[in-house]
Amino acid sequence: MLKIQSTFNHKVVISSLLICISIIVFLLFEPALSIKYLNVIKQSIFKNFSWFYILTSTFFVFFLVFLSVSRYGDIKLGDDNEEPEFNLTAWFSLLFTAGMGIGIIFLGVSEPLSHVLSPITNQYIEKQALFQSIFHWSINAWAIYGIIALAIAYFGFRYKLPLSLRSCFYPLFKQRIEGNLGDIIDILGICTTLFGITTTLCYSAVRLTSAFAEHNITIQFILGAVGFIAILISLRKLSSGLQFVSHINLILSICLMLFVLFVGPTSYLLSAFTENIGYYFSSLIQVGFKTYIYQPEYQSWFTEWTILYWAWWFSWAPSFGIFIARISRGRTIREFIFGVLIVPSIFFILWFTIFGNGAIWINENIADGKLNEFIDQSGKLLFTFLSYLPFSKLSYYITFIIILLFFITTIDFGVYILNNISSKDKSVVSPRWQIIMWGIILAISSFTLFQIGGIEALQATMLIFSLPFAISMIIMTFSLLKGLRFDYEYYNRAYDSQRWLTDDWRESLTNLLTSHDQQDSISYLKTTALIAMREVRQELIGIHELDVHLENNFVTEDPSLVFTIKLPNNEQFNYILRTIECEETTDNNSEETSKYYKLQICNSNVELPYEIHHLSKNELIADILQNYEQSLLNLSSID
């Protein structure tokens, strides 16, 4: 019988798909009833939890700023001597393409025009309209992405845990993240991601259809072909497939933006850009806490725009978080935070200035207010706006290509993230059929919901999943802070000089400065560490009658020894010694690397595994007993 290879965590995948399929089937066969119930839930969340979304996003901004200026800012997302995997140009291009998304292409024109006509802008109408658009897309949104991306990257590259959502909770829940608790986190992540991406794709398909409703263009066929291409690109590596498309997309987007800048009212737009920067940063804190509780006439606008946006960003947080974490290895926390918060935000201020202020200016000075007719058709509004500029046909084609490329990158992000969350072992390359499966699920879900017009229901579903995920992200911040605090204290603690006050200090120095291969490390485990642990075990069992277990594993890629002592409260003290494969550059002017192996200790007293050198047998026994003593002291302090 042919056995299908898979890296899936079957419990997570099956549970997630059952939940998502149940919702989609309900929408498909009972659209009116499902939309009615989901809208009731949507309005309930708007009424009772709007304050929570506002407070949470603003808290994330302050938390990230605190980390960037604190002592934790110098900690690297990886080993202390590790260099960034992607250079700044590649990193920023991937950040921009991921962060821009397909929505910014349509909403760069339509959202500022919508705010101009809304009751929220009763003074300095144009400036306030631009501020609201920029506010929805910049620092607060990226703080949501930044929190989860930082946690995933930190625990993945610093703690050497899998690059997954459940790893972010390790300091709080320890090994329980490998059980049902971790599965629940991943199930929530998959459902939130699937409906967040599906909602985005459906919205974009509706906008694109409205833009070409009068032309003989079969949008469904074009999007189907784009989805097929996206799945093919997903089969390639991140650095070769998605990065290539991202670079092209970024270049075309910047070209389109500069085109509008130079053929439009250039001087006016540059002056508006300057003022928009100042007005945005000066108003950020005040509006960041604003819930319009004292202005009930604005509540409808507030929930349908700001709160819906915040829910949308939370639904995209798992995908952006894992993706941004994946491309940020080797950067310091300070560099990461400023890169993620400030650089994209400045870009969005520029984007909304050029397209938003540009559209408002053309509407008032050239189009005689005709653009207002297409406020509810953002796709058609975008191309109508371009028709008032020179070389409109050229800009049509470029914009259309950009939109199709964004469809590709959106599907690619979704496939990559869904497969990552659903995989049990993140270090193992997934078989191609899994990539294809997730691509097909995204395509079918989006196409089905697009055909039945389930946008309102998708909004409600997105809110339902984003709310508990937002709560889990608050817990994640405390987990991250706990991990950072231990990290700093461990690497900055006073150095124990007693170890060198022996007759064997020359041998210890040699071990400290010698790079060992895998065979050396395995030999150390067998000839020194195993003997040391056996002596301790014999003493603890024979003299003190304790329950002690010693397990060796020398046949895996990461050989290890596991030493376990049962504590009086029926919990266990674990002392795990394992070898870790590392790489180092052989020449400063070369990209060639060589492998070496270091020893790593993980025990019950610390969240972060720490490195040791090839200690002597007695030194290793001393380290084991010192940690065991600390466990007993911790236990007595709890009692």
Automatic annotation (TrEMBL):
Keyword Transmembrane annotated: yes
Main location: membrane
Membrane topology of the entry: Multi-pass membrane protein
Key words of the record: Cell membrane, Membrane, Transmembrane, Transmembrane helix, Transport
GO cellular component, one term: plasma membrane
Subcellular location: Cell membrane
Residue stretches in coiled coil: none
GO MF terms, alphabetically ordered: transmembrane transporter activity
Similarity comment text for this entry: Belongs to the BCCT transporter (TC 2.A.15) family.
Record protein name field: Choline/glycine/proline betaine transport protein
Native organism: Bisgaardia hudsonensis
